[in-house]
Every structure is written in structure tokens, then in C-alpha cells.
């Protein structure tokens, strides 16, 4: 009889242990969620994160609090989330640095982009314009490429730093055209664009925000856009594919959401549904377009597949262009 009572007590204890996590998942979220951004407050990634977080919190019934952990091109934030508890209460706003930093900083970066994270959603894609100064002698992309083919390193391009979206897009162009162009990195997109407008740097790939206005003011000329189809705000600007370079639409800058590996699927699905609900609202979509973003709002499964393909794309380009780490 004593043994039966002990076995009964043990079974009850095991049931309680099994039920508690299930109940904890069922009422998720029951406390505020921390959204970690690896870039400064006021920057494009931070602005998009805060726009989504505010409405997302209302959908989840809990505040979504943005925390900026700046440094090492997003690595400090990324590594902190990789090491956080996998409970759905700490998530990362990731950019292309999630994959690119791991490729460039192999052996130094302390996370694996595939093994250490559970994808939630690719929220927004950030295409780019290829721009030159308004008085540039290069009126088309063909003009620019032809000059690069005839004179190695005669054509220069600006970026916000090594390994960023502008650098990698221009490196892709140089690789596709088999040309040798001069990379001139700056501390941010704004100073790089200033030099392009002044004609001291020939071109750069620049985020879509504010570009049409600068062209209207005759500060820059837009030669191409990296979207799959012509962008509605600039219908006369050809795509890179129309200019003879298909595939650039795949090399976009993502703004997505990932959680630590092992986060319960229920939490991932609830987060993804809240993000999609937010992004499908016309007012949010319009604001994101004004920030140069195109809404994607993928599922966790779709984002996992996208990140895998994205890693392969960047790895192939970085190897082909012989791009080195910039510690």
C-alpha cells in the first residue's frame, strides 16, 4: 500500500511538471516582451522596430519594449539574444548582419545564425536605388559599367561601411560585370551620399527613403532600383533586371524578427501572427513605405527558408568578391 501511495504521488508530481509548462505557453504572453535592436535610436531599423512594436503590443495584450544594444555592427545585440532564455520574452530585430557578420567574422562572432535562432517573421524588405550625382557624366547604368570596364578602379562607390547593404550591392555589381571598382566607406549613408552628390564619389546604392525628393531637387540622379518591378514612387526608373542585371531583388536588406533557438512554437506563432496583423494595416504599410520599406510579413517557416537561402547568397558573393572582415 505504501508503494502504491508513493507511485501515485510520483505520477501526480510528474503530471504537474508537464502541465505547468503547457499552461505557461497557453497564456503566453503574460508579461512584457523585450525587442532588442542592435542599432542606435532614431536610425531606420530602430524606427521600423518601434513602429511595429507599438501596434504589436496591442495585438498581444502586453507591452513590447524596444531596447537598443548598440555596437559591433549589431553583434552585441545579436549575441545577447542568442544567449537569452528561449521563452519568447526576448526577441531580436535582425538585419542582413545576422548572416553577413557570421560569414565575415567566422571564428570571432559568437553565434550561429541557423542553430542559435528561431525565425519569427521577415517583416520588411529594404530595396535600394543606385544613384549618382545630378551632374554626373553617367546618365545610365550602362554608362557607369562601360567606364568601369575600360578603366580599373576609375569608378568609385560609397557605402556606410564594409559589409553593409550598400557595400555588398556594389560588390555584387562589380562581380557581375567583372570590373574592379574602388570602395570608399563612410561612417553612415548620409556622408556617403553627400560625397556622391558632390561628384567626389561616382555612385552608391542608397535606401529608398528620401531619394525621390533629392532627385526632384536636382541633387542626384537615380539610375536603377533593386526591386523586382518598377517602384510606384519612381515609375520611370528602370529595375536592375531591366538594366541587364537580374537577381538584385533577392539581395535585399531585411528587417525581421528572430528569437533564441528552442523558443516554443506557440510563442513563435503568436508573435508572427501579431506582426502580420500589424503590418497588414494600411496606416502601418503607408508609414513603412515612407521609410523605404516593402511589407513582407512571412510565417516562421517561410522566414527560416528565406534566411537559409540568404546565407547562401551572401556567402557566395563574399567569396567571389573576396570581401574581408572589417573588425
Question: Any key phrases for this structure?
Answer:
single chain, 327 residues, D-Maltodextrin-Binding Protein, domain 2, three-stranded antiparallel beta sheet
Task: Tell me what you see in this structure.
This protein has 327 residues and is of the alpha/beta class. The protein folds into two domains: 165 residues, 3-Layer(aba) Sandwich (D-Maltodextrin-Binding Protein, domain 2), CATH 3.40.190.150; 110 residues, Periplasmic binding protein-like II (D-Maltodextrin-Binding Protein, domain 2), CATH 3.40.190. It has a six-stranded mixed sheet with strand order 2-1-3-10-4-11, sandwiched between helices. A three-stranded antiparallel sheet has the order 8-5-9. Helix 2 links the parallel strand 1 and strand 2. Helix 2 packs across helix 9. The termini are far apart.
| Overall geometry | globular
Portion of residues in helices? 40-55%
CATH top level label of the largest domain: Alpha Beta
Q: In the CATH scheme, what's the topology name of the largest domain?
A: D-Maltodextrin-Binding Protein, domain 2
What would CATH call the architecture of the largest domain?
A: 3-Layer(aba) Sandwich
Main sheet attributes: strand count, strand direction, barrel closure: 6 strands, mixed
Number of DSSP E strands: 11
Model regions low in confidence, pLDDT < 50 over at least 5 residues: 19-24
The overall average pLDDT, rounded, is 91
Report, as a whole number of angstroms, the end-to-end distance: 68 Å
The tally of structural domains comes to 2
H/E series: HEHEHEHEEHEHEHEHEEHHEH
Portion of residues in beta strands equals: 15-25%
| Structural class computed from helices and strand pairing | alpha/beta
Number of helices: 11
CATH superfamily of the largest domain: Bordetella uptake gene, domain 1
Amino acid at each position: 500500500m505504501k508503494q502504491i501511495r508513493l507511485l501515485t504521488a510520483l505520477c501526480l508530481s510528474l503530471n504537474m511538471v508537464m502541465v505547468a509548462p503547457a499552461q505557461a505557453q497557453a497564456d503566453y504572453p503574460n508579461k512584457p516582451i523585450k525587442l532588442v535592436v542592435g542599432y542606435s535610436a532614431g536610425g531606420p531599423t530602430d524606427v521600423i522596430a518601434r513602429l511595429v512594436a507599438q501596434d504589436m503590443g496591442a495585438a498581444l495584450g502586453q507591452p513590447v519594449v524596444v531596447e537598443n544594444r548598440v555596437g559591433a555592427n549589431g553583434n552585441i545585440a545579436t549575441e545577447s539574444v542568442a544567449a537569452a532564455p528561449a521563452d519568447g520574452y526576448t526577441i531580436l530585430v535582425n538585419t542582413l548582419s545576422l548572416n553577413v557578420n557570421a560569414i565575415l567574422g567566422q571564428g570571432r562572432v559568437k553565434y550561429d545564425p541557423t542553430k542559435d535562432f528561431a525565425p519569427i517573421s521577415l517583416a520588411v524588405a529594404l530595396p535600394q536605388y543606385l544613384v549618382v550625382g545630378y551632374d554626373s557624366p553617367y546618365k545610365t547604368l550602362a554608362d557607369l559599367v562601360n567606364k568601369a570596364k575600360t578603366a580599373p578602379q576609375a569608378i568609385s562607390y560609397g557605402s556606410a561601411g564594409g559589409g553593409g547593404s550598400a557595400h555588398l550591392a556594389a560588390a555584387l555589381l562589380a562581380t557581375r560585370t567583372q570590373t574592379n571598382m574602388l570602395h570608399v566607406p563612410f561612417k553612415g549613408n548620409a556622408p556617403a551620399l553627400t560625397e556622391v552628390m558632390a561628384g567626389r564619389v561616382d555612385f552608391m546604392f542608397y535606401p529608398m527613403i528620401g531619394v525621390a525628393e533629392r532627385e526632384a531637387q536636382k541633387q542626384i540622379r537615380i539610375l536603377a532600383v533593386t526591386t523586382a518591378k518598377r517602384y510606384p514612387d519612381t515609375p520611370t526608373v528602370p529595375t536592375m533586371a531591366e538594366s541587364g542585371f537580374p537577381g538584385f531583388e533577392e539581395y535585399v536588406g531585411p528587417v525581421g524578427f528572430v528569437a533564441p533557438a528552442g523558443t516554443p512554437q506557440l510563442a513563435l506563432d503568436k508573435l508572427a501572427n501579431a506582426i502580420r496583423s500589424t503590418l497588414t494595416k494600411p496606416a502601418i504599410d503607408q508609414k513603412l513605405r515612407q521609410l523605404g520599406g516593402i511589407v513582407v510579413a512571412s510565417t516562421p517557416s517561410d522566414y527560416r527558408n528565406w534566411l537559409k537561402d540568404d546565407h547562401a547568397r551572401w556567402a557566395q558573393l563574399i567569396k567571389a568578391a573576396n570581401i574581408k572582415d572589417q573588425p
